[in-house]
């Protein structure tokens, strides 16, 4: 871009259409995965023409990568908020409950993430190798320090984090199965109470 020339600010309609496309794509990708999704499906879900979709994005991969980039930032935020100076058990339980809330609030995003990882993370690899790994390494060191101080029971920090992901995101990724098996019970209230008890008993020093 030439010096002194600034990019034109997107109009309100352009911002609205872009959001509309991304929301439609989230539905399509979370249901069909990257390989099964098509631009035609996204256009139909958004109520826009395919050429209109291509005005805002270069193609299916551009839309998918945009969604993943937005998702990773939101997905990692609760892990960043674990306070090394807080009460160890309460900090971890706060993280567990926030991840469970996210599985209820953002089930499509959880399935989008799961589908990408199941395919070998071809578009998200750099995020896993840099941002995610660095954050998990930092969190693991905090947990190791708490264990060394006798403030948490001895556990492998990384397996603890994996366990939290598995026990919370399950409720989004396998929602259809959970709903059948729970037969109308309050799934998230029961899950919250169960996971609180589980991790308190496991981690109490």
UniProtKB/TrEMBL annotation:
Residues in HTH tetR-type domain copies: 15-75
GO molecular function, one term: transcription cis-regulatory region binding
Pfam families: TetR_C_3 (PF08362), TetR_N (PF00440)
The entry's keywords: DNA-binding
DNA-binding region residue numbers: 38-57
InterPro entries, alphabetized: Homeodomain-like_sf, HTH-type_TetR-like_transc_reg, HTH_TetR, Tet_transcr_reg_TetR-rel_C_sf, Tscrpt_reg_YcdC_C
Superkingdom per UniProt: Bacteria
GO aspect biological process, one term: negative regulation of DNA-templated transcription
Annotated protein name in UniProt: Transcriptional regulator, TetR family
């Amino acid at each position: 871009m030439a010096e002194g020339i600034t990019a034109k600010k997107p109009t309100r309609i352009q911002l609205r259409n872009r959001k509309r496309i991304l929301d439609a794509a989230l539905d399509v990708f979370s249901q069909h995965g990257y390989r099964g999704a098509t631009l035609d499906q996204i256009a139909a879900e958004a109520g826009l023409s395919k050429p209109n979709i291509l005005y805002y994005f270069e193609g299916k991969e551009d839309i998918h990568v945009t969604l993943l980039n937005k998702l990773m930032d939101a997905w990692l935020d609760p892990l960043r908020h674990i306070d090394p100076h807080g009460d160890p058990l309460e900090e971890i339980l706060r993280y567990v409950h926030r991840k469970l809330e996210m599985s209820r609030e953002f089930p499509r995003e959880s399935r989008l993430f799961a589908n990408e990882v199941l395919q070998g993370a071809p578009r998200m690899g750099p995020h896993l190798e840099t941002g995610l790994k660095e954050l998990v390494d930092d969190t693991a060191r905090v947990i190791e320090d708490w264990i060394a101080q006798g403030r948490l029971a001895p556990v492998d920090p990384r397996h603890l984090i994996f366990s939290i992901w598995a026990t919370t995101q399950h409720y989004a990724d396998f929602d259809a199965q959970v709903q059948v098996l729970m037969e109308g019970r309050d799934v998230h209230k029961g899950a919250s109470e169960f996971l609180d008890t589980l991790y308190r008993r496991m981690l109490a020093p």
